[in-house]
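Supplementary Note 3. Input sequence used for the single-chain structure prediction.
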Amino acid sequence: MTKGIANTFGAYQTYYETGLLAHESPSNISWIGSIQAFLLLFVGGLITGPIYDAGYLRGLVIAGSVSGVTGMMMTSICKEYWQVVLAQGVLVGCGSGCLLLPSVAVMPQYFTKRRAFATGIGAAGSSLGGVIYPIVFHELQPRIGFGWATRVIAFIMLGTLMIPILVMRARVFPSTRRPLFDKNILRSIPYDLFSLGEFFGFMGMYIPFYYVTSYSIAHNIANENLSFYLLTLLNVGSIFGRIVPNFFADVTGPLNITFPFILFCSIIAFCWTSVHSLGQMVVFCLSYGCFSGTFVSITGPALATLSNDMSLVGTHMGMSFTF
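The predicted structure, written as discrete structure tokens, is reproduced below.
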């Protein structure tokens, strides 16, 4: 649910522009997804850390599940812009944030080798959600309406979230509560530069996910039906981008993987302005999805290598994700 539902917002962006929120500008509508993505990283990076360390893993998973599913249910009955902001932006964003840290922190405890690869496989679940949810919304919305299409997605979320609620367990918790903020790590130039790179990277990374559908329709690259599947292709590419590079990251080191993949991701993003045909758009979506997926999945292992105190690696990740 965490980043998978965030990657789905492009389908809602297009629908809102032509339907429910047609009176709002595309920029105003995109704030809904931006708030959701911000709260995903802010809540998941800074706020939930001490709660997790205190042993409330199950509470975080339940709270995140309830908030996320409730947010989508409330979205299904929204009529006004501010209602969608509160439901899909704030409620879903906070719910996703509550689930982010548990999913990242628990998995490495079960692996002594190939941790980056295991993390990549786990992160690929978000991309899989980004493949399924837009198709569900696109196929059901014309048949049963916006409200029930969104409720179906909420029910899918509820069913899949029951699995971590029932089986997710941490093997160990920190012996002492970690601080919320560690000023000493800010003296590390590599950490500061990497966090700055994250800031600019995440600032622009979701733009294609939000606008590729509406862009393709506006520029007559694809019809309305086909353009929805371009968002799916972005997430398909992201599945490979989250798994394959992480396999090699265990050998070469995550930082050595991060730089070239982020460089190519930036180059591909600039190439978007030169896309004028469906074939070019398909190549763009698969390529951008792949390289941006690496950026999402490799940041955790990369930050772990930059931490100067492994007992505070959770704090350092939370600080970096927040900024």
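The longest helix spans residues 115-167. Residues 2-170+181-322 form a domain with the Growth Hormone; Chain: A; fold (CATH 1.20.1250.20).
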